[in-house]
Amino acid sequence: MDLKLKVWRQKNPESPGGLVDYDATGVNPDMSFLEMLDVVNEGLIEKGEDPIAFDHDCREGICGSCSLTINGIPHGPQKAIATCQLHMRHFENGQTVVIEPFRARPFPVMKDLIVDRGRFDQIIEAGGYISARTGSAPEANSIPIPKQTTDRAMDAAECIGCGACVAACPNASAMLFVGAKVTHLNSMPQGRPERDRRVLKMVASMEEAGFGNCTNTFECVAACPKEIKGEVMAQMYRDYVKALFRQAIRPE
Amino acid sequence: MSLNAKIPSGRLAEKWSNHIKDIKLVNPNNKRKYRIIVVGTGLAGASAAATLSELGYQVECFCYQDSPRRAHSIAAQGGINAAKNYQNDGDSVYRLFYDTIKGGDFRSREANVYRLAEISTNIIDHCVAQGIPFAREYGGYLANRSFGGAQVSRTFYARGQTGQQLLLGAYSALCKQIEGGGVTMRPRTEMLDLVVIDGHAKGIVVRDLVSGKITSHVADAVVLATGGYSNVYDLSTNARGCNVTAAYRAYKKGAYFANPCFTQIHPTCIPISGDYQSKLTLMSESLRNDGRIWVPKKKGDDRPPNEIPEEERDYYLERKYPSYGNLAPRDIASRSAKEVCDQGHGVGPGGFGVYLDFKDAIQRLGRQVIKERYGNLFEMYRNITGENAYEVPMRIYPATHYTMGGLWVDYNLMSNLPGLFVIGEANFSDHGANRLGASALMQGLADGYFILPYTIGDYLATQRQPRPSSDHSAFKEAEKNVSEQTKCFLSIQGERTVQSFHRELGTIVWNLAGMARNEAGLKEALTKIPELRNEFWRNVKVPGDDDTINQQLEKAGRVADFLEFAELLCYDALTREESCGGHFREEHQDDNGEAIRDDATFSHVSAWEFQGNDAKPTLHQEPLEYTEVKMATRSYK
Amino acid sequence: MVGALWIASVCGKERQRERQRFDKALTLRNMSIWVELLRSSIGKKYIMAITGFLLFIFVIGHLLGNLQVFLGPEAINGYAEKLRSMPLLLWGARIGLLVVAALHIWMAASLTIENRRARPEPYQLKTPIQATYSARTIRISGVIILAFVIYHLLHFTFLVIEPDYATWTDSAGRPHVYKMMVAGFSNVWISGFYLLAMLLLCLHLSHGLMSMFQSVGLRNPVWARFLEQLARTIAALIFLGYASIPVAVLSNLIE
After folding, report:
1. CA-to-CA separations, A18 to A21, A98, B211, B413, C90, in angstroms, rounded
2. Is residue B567 part of a domain?
3. 10 Å Cβ neighbour count for B526?
């Protein structure tokens, strides 16, 4: 099948970008979306043009590198998958496909479809960890943790850090990403000692990065390739205010 | 020449504890004066960088991805082994050790494997403390599952995302250290050369993948945690970016490369659908518990599978291995699939696939049971192929997914170049000729959290070499070479894309040095690869500039190294005239197609020393001695 | 021994350093709970939710008051007079409402400005995946409701638009609220604007009510669907309640 692509091309963070038209011809419906772009790129290279730059790595939906907004939806029209798991059979012959990067001020476009998501790392650096020095751990089974607790933590921990939540949010808010990490760590008994400073510092870091605010539209949840639930944000809001109050009464 | 692995003396079970006692320590005040470079942020790299920083060293950490969290350890699904014996089923450190040695077909280093089994329990303790949500039972205690190659249930898991969770644990520890200032993290930076001064590794030269700047980084020790080289086959289950460059360039600077021919092929991957294919996706081997593998008896039979009558199907595994049938071990299942496809019985596009049929299982157990057992895998299969495996048989084909070979290291995980440490999949030591499931995560974390942090101190405390400045001529020269190579890629402006060379190389290596190898094939590969390499340097086309993000330029460097490394792989495979584990030489099999090991001649590690671009590498041997285990033949009859 | 002490002091120093870093991160931003609530993204959410809830209570109360119009002039005029007889309560409530509304609007404006800033380069094509119409239009519905509220106050409370109303009294000498309502809503344009505003209020509430629970962390998957339906139902009831008055006037049910 043949497709008309409109792809965002941008030389570097400073220069302005724009949509450029390309024809993707002879697309096999069994191709993945990124393989389709690979083929387009091979054609561009042969013609001596600069191929379209996009982030990708594992191509099995777990590394979180791929970050395309396809026809206005991060990771494309299929639910609960990353861009690399999207296959061309979900498109129609002759369809126009608009491909843009994930857009948000904290995710500056570096080239074409590649954005810098380093702000996510900074949020984790601010508190997305449990301080456990290597060698200091007690025997693994010394703290029983209810299965429900672990399951809930695992639901949140599945986040692949791709940034689709930010990209989908009308306000470019990162609440789902931060909420997932806060919920994962704060709900485990091991994470209790640091829960207040964790949520305060992570939220502070998120705000400093310039992400927008949440207006509860749940677009993030709909776009999430791992179907992280909106509940994680509710838990973060709760934990945040509790931490503020505790901080006010008994400053750390 | 024989290599000294510096294995401590004493009884096997006491070697590591004795060694820790004897190891030299670095005074806490001095630790912060030492700078250590860690390349790669997978399980091994991230855990090592975090732990070294906790100890007080200054760490500089590099990865080519945009974030350390994206390293390919993240894709490991199954689990991590540990000799906890929580199931009370008779597991022990010794049993884990023995299973790993046997699984590795007696080609791994006994002392290292024992240490790995000992440390396995500490890993679980530590990971639980980090908050990794391992699966639990209703009582709140940790759950286990069984895994191939073992008769006990010792695998810890977090749904199908164990690798991801363990990596996020190590990454979060790393992040804490980055925030604390102990680790300087440099993402989107690729190591392109190792700098050796007076025989000691003293730093690396890297290219910033965003600005294209080539810079030198000086250290007192360099740790490579750069993963395996499965992508030499172009198509593998590895991430697209996985490469051999760091390890290979260290090899070219004098580090020995050990057992490059030991590669592992996984039998149940989703087959190739066309020549655009960029990646093979692995599906859990557990599918073989209920699925029956077959191909049409008639060559080139292109009828839809459900129209092929029972008597025209060849259930070749059941036919050849009546007792194990569809559950024959990975290497045997993979080889048999290749065999039938090579004979023209393959199904699907290109004829590279065999059927894995669940019809009988669905009739016997009902669709619901199959859905409960394999629902997510069927869903994944449907997503990729668009086919419903409840209605039509799955198509599967083997794919490379792990490489046991790697840079040679001694017991301290230090290569023959003092100051160069190699950990995780990038080294060779623990898995011999074949790796057991759920052992890769264990090894990566053991190296990073619990072994390297001790042994690197021993080196730093005893070495007396000052840290050079980055103006040292060795750094300048390496920078110049790297920069010239980069410019060279851009100046060739030939006709063919980098990917086309990678694909062609992959086809050669897969066909001639893949699941089954023979002398003629390997010799053929050894003539074809240099030809392809020559064409690459004449005819490759790399567009763009070197001062911006240029993914083709990055790939060109990696493929250039694969083009050289593939030759080393084939050469090693040609020299090892025996069949063991993942290395199957067709000349060395019995009448039933079983591998025949030659313990008298090949019970050694082959470590190759680089001798120049056109010269044959020199072989160094490390004899493998087994004091506690008896070498036995694997049999699946 | 000396060594151990020395190691302890090094570790101590490290801890201290880390402590200082954390303190810096937080105290630099002056972690006063009130400042944080007004400044931080989540604090603002809480204020939005709480002020929204108070305004919702007012909307209910006001509706119950207004519906007395169906009981005839005596009831509603008496009710109005009763409110006037308690100036402390009336003005307290008015000032309270003003503060609450001001906070609600201030937070909304500040959140909106920040949100605009968070995506300076817009998408060329953006497709909403599932966000409801009410969620996507929460800002514009809010602004129109504000405009309506100002008009409504000028109309009925401050009597700027119809100064004549001030002279209308019933037989007991009370302000003739009943007559004002009937007169006001007899104007099709006024009734139309009123109905439109109430429709928007309904829209605003159907997202806002659910949103409120999420913002204070009280929404969870178990009752998420229930909450959404509850919010929609309440919003619809409020609309029907308010809309019934102009409809009744226009259809001459109330004269």
Report:
1. 10, 11, 22, 50, 58
2. yes
3. 17
User: What is the per-residue pLDDT across B206-249, written as a single tens digit (0 to 9) for each?
Assistant: 999 999 999 999 999 999 999 999 999 999 999 999 999 999 99
Whether B330 is a known active-site residue: answer yes
What's the CATH architecture for A3-111?
Roll (3.10)
Q: Which residues of C touch A215 (CB under 8 A)?
A: 111, 115, 135, 138, 211
* DSSP H helix total and E strand total for chain A: 8, 7
Establish if B291 belongs to a structural domain: yes
**Which of B154, B249, B313, B330 is labelled catalytic?**
B330
- Considering only CB atoms, A157 lies closest to which of B168, B274, B282, namely B168
B506 φ, ψ (degrees, to nearest 5) = -60, -40
Q: Kindly state the average pLDDT of the residues B544-571.
A: 97
Alpha-carbon distance B454 to nearest alpha carbon in chain C (angstroms): 18
Query: To probe the interface with B, which of A14, A25, A62 has the most B CB atoms within 10 Å?
Result: A62
User: Between B and C, how many residue pairs show a Cβ–Cβ distance under 8 A?
Assistant: 6
Chosen for mutation from C10, C19, C22 (greatest number of chain B CBs closer than 10 Å) is C10
My answer on whether C7 and C124 are in the same domain is: no
Domain count, chain B: 2
CATH of span A118-249: 1.10.1060.10
C171, C202: one domain: yes
Is B258 a member of any domain?
Answer: no
The set of residues, in sequence order, having a beta carbon less than 8 Å from that of C95 and lying 6+ positions away, is none
Please say if the pLDDT value at position B342 is more than 60: yes
- Chain B residues with CB under 8 Å of A185 CB are 131
**For residue C27, pLDDT beyond 60:** no
| Residue-range definition of the domain harbouring residue C183 | 44-250
Sheet holding B189-197, edge to edge: B189-197, B200-208, B214-218
Q: What is the per-residue pLDDT across B567-588, written as a single tens digit (0 to 9) for each?
A: 999 999 999 999 999 999 999 9
Q: pLDDT digits over A64-105, tens only? A: 999 999 999 999 999 999 999 999 999 999 999 999 999 999
Same structural domain, C26 and C77: no
> Are residues A214 and C120, on separate chains, in Cβ contact within 8 Å?
no
User: Looking up tokens 């930010």, which residue turns up?
Assistant: A166
Question: pLDDT confidence of A24, banded at 50, 70, 90?
Answer: very high
CB-based contact B570:B525 (threshold 8 Å)? yes
ipTM value: 0.98
